[in-house]
Amino acid sequence: MSAVVPLPDIQHQRAVFPDGLTLDSGQRIAPVAVAYRTYGRLNAARSNAVLVCHALTGDQYVAEPHPLTGKPGWWEAVVGPGRAIDTERFFVICANVLGGCMGSTGPREEMTDAEGRPLGRPWGVDFPPITIRDMVRAQHLLVRHLGIERLLAVVGGSMGGMQALEWAATYPAMVAACAPIATATHHSAQNIAFHEVGRAAIHADPDYQGGRYWQTGRVPAQGLSVARMVAHITYLSEQALTRKFGRRLRGAPALTFLEDVFEVESYLRHQGSTFVRRFDANSYLTITRAMDYFDLAAEFGGDLVAAFRGTATRFLVCSFSSDWLFPTSESRNLVRALNGAGANVSFVEIATDKGHDAFLLDEPEFHAALGGFLRGVAARAGA
Amino acid sequence: MSAVVPLPDIQHQRAVFPDGLTLDSGQRIAPVAVAYRTYGRLNAARSNAVLVCHALTGDQYVAEPHPLTGKPGWWEAVVGPGRAIDTERFFVICANVLGGCMGSTGPREEMTDAEGRPLGRPWGVDFPPITIRDMVRAQHLLVRHLGIERLLAVVGGSMGGMQALEWAATYPAMVAACAPIATATHHSAQNIAFHEVGRAAIHADPDYQGGRYWQTGRVPAQGLSVARMVAHITYLSEQALTRKFGRRLRGAPALTFLEDVFEVESYLRHQGSTFVRRFDANSYLTITRAMDYFDLAAEFGGDLVAAFRGTATRFLVCSFSSDWLFPTSESRNLVRALNGAGANVSFVEIATDKGHDAFLLDEPEFHAALGGFLRGVAARAGA
Questions:
Q1: Catalytic site residue B362?
Q2: Does the active-site annotation cover A158?
Q3: Within an 8 Å CB–CB cutoff, is residue A126 touching chain B?
Q4: Which of residues 155-184 of B touch A (CB under 8 A)?
């Protein structure tokens, strides 16, 4: 399987599963490839594995420079030697999600037919709709492939937190600890609405070409850029935007009535344009849909408590006070359900004005809470 | 001046000012046309005039069916016989803003040269950048043209509230009372950012054609629709979106993995597509910029108190508890400045979960506060 839309020639580390997966939609994809990276060493007892799940636009390059952008790994503040997720102590696994565009099976990879035969073109819009649970099923294949029977912890923020929750609900015996961060058990109407704006912007771009942009090599850069811009606003608090930019004019002491007068505008445009260099529009559509579908209670007959009843998994739930995309109230709902299920759960709301993005940034209190939680779990497990 | 982009043939009521206006940008536009509607009767003393200022996508059809859509006037809940702005008692004026697209001079109207000669094509992107103060200057021409020396009140919500504040600051002797509603004295970084997404979506639409879409008759409907969608989300609270739609699936009891599965999506798409039938993209760009430029303190050397010092105008400031676009904290900042200026000011925060949109909706407590304020002002003025 290779990228057909021209991209730098990157050989992602990956595992291929010929038998594939049956998805929530009922469709079967085979083979399924899962691109991943690992950091640290698996101990002899295979008891020190921590799975990190990435967010919407993240990937497996969690603690090393990104091969396309050259930027530091997206969670180097949290994953590394001596960090909260200590790679000197833990064997850290991070996989590109199913439906992603960094080497795992997804819209940018070569399509296969029902017998698994390659069809010489990318999946594109023919990639089936997937769910957060489908992503977790693909990770489950990888974890078993790596010879791991039980994960010490599954950790993730935002969409990564959805996956962490799905892991704990779907494979409870395999998850000693679970840390869902800045997340929720379902996507809210407002979250769905913001995603829908992004999708509409992509669909509106004539270079989207009905999703068959791989036929011409012209990608819907403008639409994807607008989608990224609107999403980016939701990741920041009003305070963070104001602190970063306020109403500062760009290179002008007063109104000049030129384009791009406000710094926040050029910043957003930059965010949009750099994003399109590394991300695939059909992946963006696929993954945002998966997030919108996510409703953990619905998977258990509308009863969130049933998702966790009798679980032996230990939970650390983290929220950030200025996160308006996944507000603390959503984490409290989760904690209530976990309490109702009799789970062992700690909850911490981190006071910060950085918004949803805080989970990716320098937040010592959050890092201390997560690090302490994992050390405690490891000590109990003798890992 | 006539619309060159094909539109239903509407004859807007308007006043034309041959001498025009000098704008904040330094550019002069002449002539300037101001399209307007009035309701009720001006009394003999000319002391009962209430100017209503409209919001970003509003227009002068405040209390009667809209000539393009046939829908009720945008503020019939507030303006009409026996309403808070009682047309049996007050002479109500509402003008399409400068830069608008319902008959006032703006990007859709015919361009004139420096000598005021018509050039046979619309202003389009050559329409100069304008400010909220420029809009108010145009309204000032109209008010004087109608023979009114002093307005009993200037009332407006959102961008209309910006204009009301600008009136009180620029023409204090002409404004007996001022009711800025769901507004702020400047646009925040987050507000600017959301506007920038909308503008980027319009610019990204190839039918925008560098703003010269009148040359082909193809308008940037997709881009304008996306802009409207993102703006619409900011007008609603999370609670309002959830109450309206929750996560309800459209015509399906469970996930079907079809397009448009969530009701909120089809609602937003509908909002976007109906909007483009009545609004002009270049107007949208012009007016959102004017809102972003708005910073009343900056017009007075950075001192908001100076904007109102010694004013005899009476103020009613209204905010809505779930409005996150123009939150109550912004209204409190305004009230503090008015108090600092020694102004007579009442402040009310209306408890509602309807978000920014609440100022347009059935909010009896708000209507009672505004109605009482205006009756009190009228009684004092003997109007």
A1: no
A2: yes
A3: no
A4: none
All residues of chain B having their beta carbon less than 8 Å from the beta carbon of residue A250 are none
- Nearest chain B residue to A286 by CA distance is B257
CA proximity to B166, closest of B198, B122, B130, B212: B130
Q: What is the ipTM of this complex?
A: 0.87
Alpha-carbon gap, residue A282 to A260, rounded angstroms: 29
pLDDT band at B338 (very low <50, low <70, confident <90, very high): very high
Cβ distance of B189 and A25 shorter than 8 Å: no
Element (DSSP H or E) covering residue A80: strand A79-80
- Is A2 within a domain? no
Segment 29-88 of chain B within 8 Å of chain A by CB: none
Q: A73 lies in which domain range?
A: 14-190+295-381
Which of B158, B237, B319, B322 is an active site residue?
Answer: B158
Tell me the pTM: 0.91
Domain boundary among A267, A288, A309: A288
Examine residue A25 and state whether it is found in any structural domain, yes or no.
yes
pLDDT tens, B80-100? Answer: 999 999 999 999 999 999 999
Minimum-distance CB partner of A204 among B197, B222, B247? B222
CA distance to A182, A341, B132, per residue, from A298 (Å) = 20, 16, 49
Place of tokens 């039980």: A150
Q: How many domains does one find in chain A? A: 2
Whether the CB of B249 is below 8 Å from some CB of chain A: the reply is no
pLDDT band at A114 (very low <50, low <70, confident <90, very high): confident
Shared domain check, A212 and A93: no
Residue A34 contacts by C-beta under 8 Å, 6 or more apart in sequence? A14, A15, A16, A17, A95, A96, A98, A104, A105, A138, A139, A141, A142
